[in-house]
Amino acid sequence: MVDGLYGYIDRRGRYVVEPQFDYAQSRRDGRAYVERDGVGQEWIF
């Protein structure tokens, strides 16, 4: 979390998705649920 926003990092700690989400939740199936400005969506990594 940076400045209250969530992003995603790789195993080395480098951002693969810059912090931009108000809420983010990862799942083991390669998908993630994210919210930005109150709108939710599912991403596939």
Automatic annotation (TrEMBL):
Pfam hit, one: WG_beta_rep
According to the lineage, what is the superkingdom? Answer: Bacteria
What protein is this chain from? WG repeat-containing protein
